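Workshop exercise sheet. Pairs work together: one partner reads the sequence aloud, the other fills in the structure field after running the prediction. Swap roles for the next sheet.
Pair: D.N. / O.F.
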Amino acid sequence: MPASSDPNRSYAAAHFALELDGKDSVGLFRSIEGGGIRADVMTYQLGQNYDRWRQVGKPKFEDIKLQVGMAMSQPFYDWIAKFFAGEADRKTGAIVAADFYYKERARRTFTEAMIKELTFPKLDATDKNAVYMTVALAVEGIVFEKGSGKSLDTPTGFDKQKLWTAANFNFKIDGFDCCKRVTKIDSFTVKQNIIEHNMGGRRSSIKTPSAIDFPNLAFYLPEADAQPFMDHAMDRITTGTVPGRLNGSLETFDHNRRTLCTLTFTGADVLAVSPDRSDSTTEDIKQVKVEIYTEKMEFKYNAISL
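Structure field:
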């Protein structure tokens, strides 16, 4: 029997797919991790007896973490948009592992999955490498299953995956034209708190969504352009003047200046303005770090074709 047809032969983990709501695949990933099962050990001791008895506690299902770029399907980005809007859209699906010949060898079927966190990558005008978002999914149940042996579709969209690079972005804040020369934006994470609820004779926990925590944004621009933010910080922080909340957006685009996705934020204000260290031995352009808070963010994906 050929080695490739042996169902018990070891295989590499380079080929995998994610199924959602019965769809065979929702896009091209860089990596998938997590999705395991574990339990805490419960220890009992009776009276003055020094012996201890142990048993397995309730099952806990690990979060599933995905690294994704701009090669996903529209339904996946719609799911992300609902996450930003505070809509807990639950999905059922599976992580499928395949061998070198794209034959399905194993799968982990999960239920009641919700987006728990989304980490946006660091953007830097000097970095030409492709970047990826990290999406964490909280699930209520996972079942390990043997693969069916069917062939997966050969993934496409590798060129599209490379469209999103760290250097291609536009950062805007209404009323601050100096943002045109923002050079770097730190990575940030949007989190939705997940509450675990135990009831009756159910062994596993029911997971329910709670409030979404929108993070602070930190960006950098030349000190020569930072005076408007310094003036705003002085008015807002030191004198207590309320000049009004800020609104803006973060837009990413490909090499042809086609928009890939847009993050719109509202209810923002300046928290800190921090000039770089001054050093006589360096010839780098003097930068200023500006940190703002936000009350709400919206995500919008713009589908493009190659």
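Discussion prompt: The chain has a mean pLDDT of 86. What would you look at next?
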